[in-house]
Specification:
Strand content: 15-25%
Distance between the termini: 27 Å
Number of helices: 6
Structural class: alpha/beta
Largest sheet: 4 strands, mixed
Order of helices and strands: HHEEHEEHEEHEHE
Strand order of the largest sheet: 1-8-7-6
Number of strands: 8
Shape: elongated
Helix content: 25-40%
């Protein structure tokens, strides 16, 4: 801990690392920690929630799955919470129908620019709206919820 004041006594190693990490968040941008779009599963809103689809989603192992409007994987409108599928009764309905009928939970995604620092990302996540954000190529794209490039989780 070279950059922490020496007069801080009584902190154990874990506490020092937590403080160092918190102080360092502001230096890191979303581009340094994001998962690329190539490593994320995105489902189309017209995907039918049948046994095969549910099993495939379960095998993926993610707790949140982005949902897109179209075949363009970059037109995400919501984040499906996988826990909402626990106890879901297969009706062979589309994801869109399941959302409309309030059988699955979907959250509006958060949008960040590539230059958003991690303190801002953590602050947004702390507000409790989501723990997944879409990283957009520009501030205009983030404001308009369009053309995201990658994900930060």
């Amino acid at each position: 801990m070279d950059h922490l004041p020496e007069d801080i006594e009584g902190l154990n190693f874990d506490q020092e690392r937590i403080i160092e990490g918190a102080l360092g968040l502001n230096r890191h941008k979303t581009t340094e920690i994001m998962s690329t779009i190539l490593n994320v599963v995105i489902v189309h809103m017209d995907t039918v929630l049948n046994d095969d689809t549910l099993e495939n989603l379960k095998q993926i192992g993610f707790s949140r799955i982005p949902i897109s409007y179209s075949a363009n994987q970059k037109s995400v409108f919501g984040i499906m919470l996988m826990k909402s599928l626990v106890g879901y009764t297969v009706r062979n309905e589309t994801i869109k129908e399941a959302i409309i009928n309030k059988r699955i939970s979907v959250r509006v995604p958060l949008f960040f620019t590539e230059q958003t620092n991690m303190t801002e990302v953590c602050r947004a996540f702390k507000e409790g709206h989501s723990h997944m954000g879409l990283v957009c190529e520009s501030a205009d794209a983030a404001r308009n919820n369009r053309n995201f490039s990658d994900l930060v989780m």
